[in-house]
Fold Undecaprenyl-diphosphatase.
Amino acid sequence: MESQSIVSALVLGLIEGLTEFIPVSSTAHLLLAGHFMGFESPGNSFAVLIQLGAILAILSVYFARLLNLALSLPSDPKSRHFVLAILVAFLPAAVIGALAHGFIKTVLFETPMLICVVLILGGFILLWVDRLALKPRYHDVTDYPLSLAFKIGLFQCLAMVPGTSRSGATIVGALLMGTDKRSAAEFSFFLAMPTMAGAFALDLYKNRNALSADDVGIIAIGFVAAFFAALVVVKSLLDFVSKRGYAPFAWWRIIVGSLGLFALLLGF
């Protein structure tokens, strides 16, 4: 295992953890950073597999709430409704992700120019939505109707194009359909658990024969870095967006996408 690869995995793991749950597209940041750092992963699996660190981070932060939810399922209709809403929202991505996995990994993941353009466009969309005078009707994620959850799940499918952002797509969709900013982010957290776990399992299965012992070591380093970075984000994001909204993330997307586009046009 080369020292350069170890440093690259550490840096990319930190990027994954810091960007997974904010609407800036962790996949876009990982693919662009990997491109400019010369980092290569069999089947582009690194960007997906280190998401397990971010999944465990959010599970650890929400462990008590998830445990209470599980224990109350047999007796509490509200808990059953919420779990069903998450599963309904997860379904579209599960179906489309499984069917289009090859195209996503071999075409979309290999197009840095597209990633930069989508980052920029998504930034302007996020700015527009953040400035709309929306009147929220839903403030509690456990009260989201199943129809609303399904529509948010459809928006999540847009994130299969790198640069869109899974959290960004779900948050924008939720806001446009009447949720407040805090609950939109929180629903995105909960929806991330089955979505990212499913993507991890599918990618691991598809690339099980392409990964070597060194690849596993590099992925483990990225996983640990992603876990600790994601812990910081998950603990602070809800309060941040409640006070400042999503405009800072929109501008970040526009800046990163523009810099990446400029670098690519120069031949880097």
Observations:
- The first helix runs from residue 3 to 19.
- Residues 36 and 268 are 7 Å apart (CA to CA).
- The chain has a mean pLDDT of 86.
- Residues 3-265 form one domain.
